[in-house]
Amino acid sequence: MAAGGIADAPDPNGVGGGRSRRLDPRLSTPIRIVLGIALVAVGVVFLLVSMTVQTIAIVTGIGILLAGVAVLVTAGEGRAPDRGEAPPSRPAAVIVVRVLGVLLALLGAGMALWPAAGAPLLSLLLTIALVAFAVAIGVRAFQPGADQRVTGVIAAVATLAVAAITVFWPVLTLVVFRLGVGAWFVFIGLQLIARALWRRSPGRRDPGRRRGVRWLRTIGATVALVLTVAAAAGSGALLGGTPLPVPDAFYTPPADVPSQPGTLIRSERMTVGVPAGAKAWRILYTTTNPDGSPAVSSGTVLAPADPGPDPLPLLTVAHGTVGVVPGCAPSLSAEPFADGAGTAMVDMVVKHGWVAVTSDYIGLGTKGPHPYLVGDAEARNVWDASKAVRGFSALKVSTDTVIWGHSQGGQGSLWTGQIAASYAPEFTVKGVAAFAPASNLYALAEAIKSETAGKTVSAYIAATWDKVYPDLEVEKHLTPGSAGPVERIGGLCFNGRDGLAAILRGSQVPNQIFPDALLDGPFGDRLKEQEPTGPFPAPLLVAQGLADPLVKPAIQDAWVRSRCDAGIPVDYRTYPGLGHVELVGPDSPLTPQLEQWTLDRWNDKAPTPDCDHLPAG
């Protein structure tokens, strides 16, 4: 936190001119000491006592109130003139400082008396208070008779940097950054006490000692400035993500788009992120919007380096969450084949001679809206990518296929299997595999609505469903204060540093994004409609990490049990200690098992359902 501050307050023993009223010098020192002790006490409470958000708000308010009083007490005081030096005049700036002192006191009182206002509003009040304090320091530094102007300016800038941090981290400000606020209160309290005692000491007139004290204060303020500016800049970099790649002309459909879904429009060889022993293309093809109207999507094709003339086994892949806006498409990524079970997919292509086709889904490379977690729409995008590859002259693929998907793509793979007979009867599905699928979207939304990951996913749903289902008017019914975070999170991709930025922004949403009333109404009914219930046309594999913080194992257990109860055999495999991403990592035990399971399905080996050995409900 900012150094300097009240420590840079003018001398209570200074001699002022004009008619400005001033605090009696005999009272100034004890008042400063009492204020300083009180601020130190507030800071110590911050540093040593575990508190709720409401208690933090009360203590912060008291500290800001005390800081405002300190500004008022020292507002009209100037540096004591040296011998022969004329007393300074009282400028209008003193009025400005006093007004800011009153503002600080009122803000502090508001925070202390209204602790239930919520973290965002309390953080806003703290930000305003810090800005007011910084302005007071800056104005006072330039009034006639002020001592150490450079130190005052540095302290003011450092305080503004702290204010910027409270903007970036509205929730953490009152929970984690309270330690910094506490240190700030301790610092300015000690400075008040030290300054009061110094001004009463006999050695205060010694020029050498005065220069030493000034240098120490300037160094302290400079260190505080460097630390706070670095923290503010780092916060901005973390939360800002990286600039999205801009889809180039390849993703722009021609004026004459074929009306038949699953028609290949164009293809282009890929050179970035292609695994050794393979070659790849990005494709543009026709599909449909969630409402069934014509649309265009992009995707990728990964094939062996030497595919040969015979039809190759086809792996139809639904990818997981990468974002919801153009620029997030896997085909635009520097690692286009790393998503989900990427290691297993590359092995199937390079080692076993398969062709893997992945849809980007509409809205990620092409015009949207992206059908985020809208099962039927995702499945049509996935099927149309596989249909388009059948018209691809560079390869021959079989109409037999195995379907894979992770997370969002897990839900997508289940839906792709579910609509196979009606939407893609020309294909024979040999198996459907879903890894940590969002199988029961409503239960998932209920379970994680107050968690960071849940808020991030909820923001993606809110940002897309408002366009996919305009009749629901989702964004008009979000919890207060959620609209801004939804917009910011919705503009970030969910990969690399952008993924971290999205999660961090999710952590700063103080409340659940969807109010319970929204979940209990038509919106909740639409969430329930996204649950894939079958039937499925081929053996079904569901994999779940038991340490998954996003897709809760208990929800997956219940979904699998309900499928088994409905007579649908499921090969359900759980993995202790594995989280949402680790489940499909290269070192996961699922990776070799998935490859063997896929080969077994291709070779028509008997499936291994285990509905009789499910976890206890």
TrEMBL record:
GO annotation (BP), single: lipid catabolic process
Keyword NADP included in the entry's annotation: no
PANTHER family attached to this UniProt entry: LIPASE 5 (PTHR34853:SF1), PTHR34853
Residue ranges of the region described as Disordered: 1-21
Keyword Transmembrane helix listed: yes
TM segment ranges: 29-49, 55-75, 95-114, 120-139, 151-169, 175-198, 219-239
UniProt keyword list: Membrane, Transmembrane, Transmembrane helix
Protein name as it appears in the record: Putative inactive lipase
Phylogenetic classification of the source organism: Bacteria, Bacillati, Actinomycetota, Actinomycetes, Micrococcales
GO terms of molecular function: triacylglycerol lipase activity
InterPro entries per UniProt: AB_hydrolase_fold, Lipase_secreted
